[in-house]
């Protein structure tokens, strides 16, 4: 129907799946993800060896696991990016419902692995973090509801998406996992704004978020401790932030040399939350700027391609996925340089973590599927035609 009304671009009948996928995919974003994965393996060789030795494991135990999960993530990304938007939407909704149930059952069956937050299921041979898989599914579900609200006689999808967001944020805060809760709320806010919400309404919601933060500060010792540490004028050199700050300062522009860094021996999360500190110490500001440029390029290119999209669902879902990807990277690196309070959030495709890297692969696969060139043409073609 869309093609009948707005016109279409010629499709190549009978073209095989792989050539069509390669012709329509955003190759620059795909290349950026591959480079990030390679950088993650390079940094894993430096950051995870001390932890493996401390736990009495093979020196490259965590690197080999990161490579295994990474290739699984790339396979999931490739497969998902070949799907049509309708199939991505169906799978995203199903995945969201499954992840939501798993999130709700965490207080009963979950574990904290001694970190003070019940976020994981222990499977014996590995662990599973539902919130990582919830994020891409939530974006798909919220975008579907908001897009449905734009149809004639459509349901109040924006309100439903807001209620759904409150439910998810509540369960995440109970773990507690305020970092993921903020990321989910941010993704919803971006999509809600793109869907046509007024700036005043978003300002009111932002005020409610601040009020919720004040309540969380009074009610959660875990949350209050992190905020107090962030606001403190002095940095305790024996804390993770202290070690990371010193490592970044020691690295300078070109780093102290490959394998010469010391922060990986002091930071327990050097291979996950503070991987960028290892990069800054051993490779210097040069590699850090490359990493920042890659995340910025993938996010910006995706948003520019989505600006040409006519389908409201694709536009909303793609925007939510792209912004969540970019902001997660921003939060991780912001914590390392003490621009943000500690969040316990990984750097997509670079940090070690099975759930994180596989979920990132699925999310980027969805984003690449939404930003592929499709026969229905671009929105400016329709606007030009209407102006004639």
Automatic annotation (TrEMBL):
Main localisation: membrane
Record-listed E.C. numbers: 2.4.99.28
Compartments, as annotated in UniProt: Membrane
Keywords from the UniProt entry: Cell shape, Glycosyltransferase, Membrane, Peptidoglycan synthesis, Transferase, Transmembrane, Transmembrane helix
Catalysed reactions, semicolon-separated: [GlcNAc-(1->4)-Mur2Ac(oyl-L-Ala-gamma-D-Glu-L-Lys-D-Ala-D-Ala)](n)-di-trans,octa-cis-undecaprenyl diphosphate + beta-D-GlcNAc-(1->4)-Mur2Ac(oyl-L-Ala-gamma-D-Glu-L-Lys-D-Ala-D-Ala)-di-trans,octa-cis-undecaprenyl diphosphate = [GlcNAc-(1->4)-Mur2Ac(oyl-L-Ala-gamma-D-Glu-L-Lys-D-Ala-D-Ala)](n+1)-di-trans,octa-cis-undecaprenyl diphosphate + di-trans,octa-cis-undecaprenyl diphosphate + H(+)
Transmembrane segments: 28-48, 60-79, 91-113, 186-217, 283-304, 316-337, 349-370
Topology with respect to the bilayer: Multi-pass membrane protein
Family from the record: Belongs to the SEDS family. FtsW subfamily.
Name listed for the protein in its UniProt record: Probable peptidoglycan glycosyltransferase FtsW
Species the sequence originates in: Albidovulum salinarum
